[in-house]
Design brief:
By secondary structure, this protein is α+β, with helices and mostly antiparallel strands. The protein contains 18 helices and 48 strands.
Length: 944
């Protein structure tokens, strides 16, 4: 007999459409196999030849957590380039490194969790470094570019599959898994959804990751918006991956559901397809899904829908077509082109904030460079391990010559004297002890342990001089002379063992706490005090050592010594991305840490020609008037120092632009948890004060002229053209920005709103025409009275310039649109959430599945205003749908309120009842509702 080759199953046939192949594979999988696919670590199905699959590979600004890789500027720095074309090339380089690294390490995943498109609404957010901008238009432009680069250009097969983070309205680390963002419909549609929507619609997004927080009282992991909005924006299947541990939070911290089976079922039916929980152990999630199936909370069809979305991504990544996948076995890693691109990106990210003419520096300038960041190339939580490294000091040495550059870090040099008269001593480290944290790669770097192979600190008669850096809020680091930071490992001993502060729980930070005539030294990571024992120096619950802090040299003295004779002083200040402002920790102030302010003041006092170079993940507030120049760059990756030095020298004219408002003072900021950008007048869109530096700001070493503005409105487009001319003597980039504002709006509209921008390079004397086709939909707003977007007829200013405040050209166009209409409340009633104005209220979930209600904050009192309500020929009664207990007062201007009281509390917050009362009104009026007590209002109706 002749052996027959078994037929190729349809799911292996590359000539069939993906949808048919997925149908075939689904039909071959058992229910248990499909359930197993719902965890982040989906196992192999060997009988079908299906490989294991992992969702999630961090790649925010380079491949992260998997060892050495090209490190590009932080995301906020990429946003500061205002250059989508550059960012697309960065995304392309990152995706090629993903492929190259996967070829040698199968732990590297192709489903990349990047980019972050959360809007930088509040500058104290700890994860400011991860976003691109406070503006939805700029954010979506940069995010779209990055995802296009990550995806690749092949029409069928994707190089990597990007997942957008973090859905939705997520800008606080403080209580991030239990706080709720109250997002009114206008803010939802005009602000928070926009960055996601425009990026998804561009066609290079494979999915999204819900955020830890709640929105309007409902956890994002059971958000109805996944179904109602996200999945309507594209015909592609989108894979929704949970954030780490968030599925368990639904029960454990949020207490939103009573059981994990209920929570898992709710998340799955809401649209979560892959559960990132309990690390590599999938047993708990699969048991919860099986329990939900057994209880009838889920059907096999629900499981199939989620698995289908995962398989769709896997097919697009070429997993089932290795011979047809153009990306299989390809990749580029640490190439000269990638190194050059990292430097180009770092150069384009530098923003010149102020300059009195001191910059660019002449080639023979004698420079004093000082500051805690001067000889640092800092990484953040989502960085790869550096292959190449360039600090500002190294860049200036290379560019100007070491003989022309003096350096003082500005740290305090200290000894720690014990109560017994001895001093903390750092033993000499053995040779070959130069391991770098993260060099080996880790699927979860939070699990990387501290080093125990080095000797612990002791105490002796002479001690070791330590470098003390205070990073603000009394959080300090201590560094040994060999450059290693004092750190605490799992055994509790202090060692000089860390190359940099880092880790999920930083083990390299301390606080000096006054105690009698000395100080206790508290280790922040463990919360324990430092104790000196016979075995060595360690942290312990008892017998804390009382130290005398002996300052051998103040940082300011070292700064003064090197700056007095210099032609120019460059103070490099900023943050360590692992300390005071990072994932899990928001900042508390815009101010520079006090030690860095003292360094800056010492430099200015010694030499008035002082340049401040801020290297930071977020904005600061400082006094710029006494500085000759100021620059800002995010932590710029592996080429940061070279890039900064080339900008200071004038090899590159700075053309970065601020991607968010820099406020002058903490008093200008709203509460961190106030997500109402309209009502709280947040971001450049609504802020009415005077910023330190406005959105879009950035200076150049040359000058540009704007002219010839024309506008033509045709069909559904406004065609805007103007010219930009380099009127200076230096080839440079300019970022031309187009904004609009409604001249006489019927509701609060933005003071300025970015419509388009373009970064262009111009030689001296060169003129170029810039044209934008702006869809008229860009002039619309979300009209709560009709529940949709509306183009309001009337005049709109068009503003062209170099920033949101530096307007060079302006004109006004009159647009036709849909006039405002009164709310037909007699016929349709009012959804409580569709207010025009509010005070003292927050939005909560009407049910656990969908809908919104409004409640007074903390059960107090609040007011809602609904403009232009049309009661027609007359209403005779009012009804309110409420839960909880309290009162609703309904009133028109000048009339006494009608009071509806819910005396007896309903059984639960979702058990609504209807109250009614006589209410006479006719014609068009503004309606006011006052809510009192722990009451939820869902709907208001009128009868007549």
């Amino acid at each position: 007999m002749t052996a027959h080759t078994p037929p190729t199953p349809p799911f292996r046939d590359p000539h069939l459409p993906f949808a048919k192949r997925i149908d075939d594979l689904l039909s071959r999988l058992t229910l248990d196999e499909k359930v197993s696919f719902l965890h982040q670590f989906a196992p192999a199905v060997e009988r079908l030849g299906v490989a294991a699959f992992r969702t999630g590979q961090e790649a925010l600004h380079g491949v992260a957590w998997m060892g050495p890789a090209t490190v590009f500027p932080q995301a906020v720095g990429l946003g500061a380039t205002w250059n989508p074309e550059l960012v697309r090339r960065v995304g392309e380089a990152v995706s090629k490194e993903v492929r190259a690294m996967r070829a040698r390490d199968e732990r590297v995943g192709l489903n990349v969790w990047s980019p972050t498109v959360n809007l930088l609404r509040h500058p104290l957010w700890g994860r400011n470094e991860e976003g691109y901008s406070e503006d939805p238009k700029l954010t979506s432009a940069i995010a779209t570019a990055y995802t296009l680069g990550l995806r690749g250009e092949h029409p069928t097969y994707w190089r990597t599959a990007p997942v957008l983070k973090h859905w939705l309205a997520h800008n606080n680390e403080t209580g991030r898994d239990v706080t709720s963002s109250s997002v009114r419909p206008r803010v939802l549609h005009e602000y928070d959804l926009r960055a996601f929507r425009e990026t998804v619609e561009a066609g290079a997004v494979a999915g999204v990751m819900p955020a830890y927080n709640l929105v309007n009282g409902r956890p994002n992991h059971v958000s109805p918006y996944l179904r109602e909005h996200l999945r309507t924006w594209t015909e592609e299947e989108l894979l929704v991956c949970s954030d780490a541990g968030a599925p368990s939070n639904l029960v454990d911290s949020e207490h939103y559901f009573d059981t994990h089976e209920e929570a898992t079922a709710a998340a799955l039916t809401a649209g979560v397809d892959s559960f990132t929980d309990h690390g590599t152990d999938s047993s708990k999630i699969t048991a919860r899904v099986r329990g939900a199936l057994d209880r009838g909370l889920l059907t096999e069809a629900d499981v199939d829908a989620a698995v289908r979305r995962q398989l769709s991504v896997r097919f697009r990544l070429g997993e089932f077509d290795p011979h047809h996948d153009p990306h299989a076995g390809t990749g580029e890693f640490d190439t000269p082109a990638h190194r050059a691109l990292a430097q180009e990106a770092a150069e384009q990210a530098v923003v010149l904030l102020r300059n009195d003419g001191v910059l660019p520096l002449a080639p023979d300038t004698r420079i004093a460079v000082v500051g805690l960041l001067a000889d640092e190339c800092k990484l953040d939580w989502y960085s790869g391990t550096l292959i190449h490294r360039s600090t500002p000091l190294e860049g200036l040495y290379e560019r100007f010559g070491a003989e022309r550059v003096e350096f003082a870090e500005g740290v305090d040099r200290v000894l720690l004297k014990t109560s017994g008269g001895t001093y903390l001593h750092v033993p000499e480290a053995p040779e070959a002890a130069d391991a770098v944290r993260g060099a080996e790669g880790a699927l979860d770097p939070a699990l990387l342990a501290g080093r125990t192979d080095l000797p612990p600190l002791t105490a002796d008669a002479t001690g070791t001089e330590l470098a003390l850096a205070d990073w603000g809020e009394d959080v300090l680091t201590l560094r040994a002379p060999d450059g290693r930071y004092l750190s605490v490992a799992e055994d509790g001993f202090l060692r000089a063992s860390a190359d940099q502060p880092g880790g999920w729980v930083v083990q390299e930070t301390f606080r000096l706490e006054p105690h009698g005539n000395g100080h206790l030294l508290r280790h922040v990571g463990t919360g324990r005090h430092v104790s000196v024992t016979a075995e060595g120096v360690k942290v312990a619950e008892e017998n804390p050592e009382i130290f005398e802090l002996i300052v051998v040299e103040r940082g300011e003295d070292a700064v003064t010594r090197v700056t007095a004779e210099a032609d120019v002083v460059v103070v490099v200040a900023g943050n360590d991305p692992h300390i005071n402002g990072r994932e899990t920790e928001d900042r508390t102030t815009l101010r520079l840490p006090a030690q860095q302010e003292r360094i800056l003041e010492a430099a200015r006092a010694a030499n008035p020609r002082t340049v401040l170079a801020l290297v930071s993940a977020y904005p600061y507030a400082f006094e710029p008037g006494r500085l000759s120049a100021a620059l800002w760059t995010a932590h710029g990756g592996q080429a940061a120092g070279t890039a900064l030095a080339r900008v200071l020298a004038g090899d590159v004219s700075p053309a970065g632009r601020l991607p968010q408002t820099w406020y002058a003072d903490d008093a200008d900021l709203p509460d961190l948890l106030d997500y109402d950008v309209i009502g709280a007048r947040q971001t450049y869109l609504y802020f009415e004060g005077a910023p330190l530096f406005p959105f879009g700001h950035g200076l150049s070493y040359t000058s540009f002229g704007y002219a010839d503005l024309t506008v033509a409105v045709e069909d559904d487009l406004a065609r805007v053209s103007f010219t930009v001319t380099n009127t200076g003597e230096t080839t440079a980039d300019e970022v031309a920005q187009l904004y609009t504002r409604a001249v006489d709006p019927s509701v609060t509209r933005p003071r300025r709103e970015l419509l388009a921008h373009r970064r262009l390079t111009l030689a001296p004397g060169e003129k170029r025409e810039v044209s934008f086709d702006v869809p008229l939909s860009a002039f619309t707003f979300w009209d709560v009275a009709r529940g949709g977007r509306r183009l309001e007829p009337g005049a709109y200013d068009l503003l062209v310039g170099a920033s949101s405040e530096d307007v060079r050209l302006r004109t006004t166009v009159t647009l036709d649109g849909d006039p405002a209409a009164p709310r037909p409340v007699l016929r349709r009633g009012l959804a409580a959430v569709d207010f025009d104005e509010q005070s003292g209220t927050e939005i909560v979930d009407r049910t656990k599945v969908s809908g919104d209600a409004v409640t007074p904050v903390a059960g107090g009192s609040g007011e809602l205003v609904y403009r232009a309500c049309d009661f027609g020929t007359g209403s005779t009664g009012v009804t309110v749908e409420v839960a909880g207990e309290g009162t609703v007062e309904v009133s028109l201007a000048g009339a006494p309120p009608t009071v509806l009281t819910l005396d007896t509390a309903t059984a639960g917050p979702y058990d609504y009842t209807t109250l009614d009362a006589p209410f006479a009104a006719q014609g068009v009026h503004d309606l006011r509702l006052r809510l009192r007590g722990p009451l939820r209002l869902a709907l208001v109706g009128f009868s007549g």
